[in-house]
Amino acid sequence: MKKSMMMLALIALTFSSCSKNETIAAATETTGTEAVGGGQEAVVDNDSAPDIVKLAVSNPDLSTLVKAVQAAGLATSLSNAGPFTVFAPTNEAFAKLPAGTLDDLMKPENVEKLNDILGHHTYVGVIKTDQLTDGQSLGMVDGTPISIKIVNGKPVVNGTVNIIASVPASNGIVHVVDSVILPN
What is the pLDDT, as a whole number, of residue 42? Predict the structure, then answer.
């Protein structure tokens, strides 16, 4: 009886192993083909939680941010392991900027300025909303801190920028905000 149970287990393990290897080979083939010519952001993975870039791409209210991230060449960086906390301005937030500002920032000759502004929206590490405290200062990627104030029980960035929603990503968290956070 023990021998037949062992044989059945061995046969099941063999079939299971073959099936997994075929799945892995198929996944590797698909992912490898899809990712050619792109960085981490080009890897196709429909099973895992989306990374910060894929999360932003899937939200039409963040399309301006996605264009800015692409123009600044930061899509690969924000698709990597992280962890990152990104304060993501909505399209309406970008529309609040003075006329012509966004168009000017998106020009190739202004990629450094755009990079600084986007870096001012990115923190290395994960800070959830319940971890944001009154008087807290966060050092952002651009080297300039932002300040957190708690107003009516909710965190506000630099005294005026409200967090609309917070969404976890595979490589961090995205706090959707109602204004662009400009460095001082």
Answer: 52
State how far the Cα of 85 lies from the Cα of 171, in Å rounded to an integer.
9
Spatial distance between the Cα atoms of 70 and 48, rounded to a whole number of angstroms: 22
Predicted confidence (pLDDT) at residue 19 exceeds the cutoff of 90 = no
β-strand partners of 138: 146
Q: Is domain 49-177 in CATH 2.30.180.10, yes or no? A: yes
- Determine how many CB atoms are found less than 10 A away from the CB of residue 12: 10
Q: Which residues, in sequence order, are bridge partners of residue 154? A: 151
Tell me the pTM. 0.73
14: pLDDT strictly greater than 80: no
Q: Are 178 and 90 in contact (CB under 8 A)?
A: yes
Q: How far apart are CA 57 and CA 93, in angstroms?
A: 17
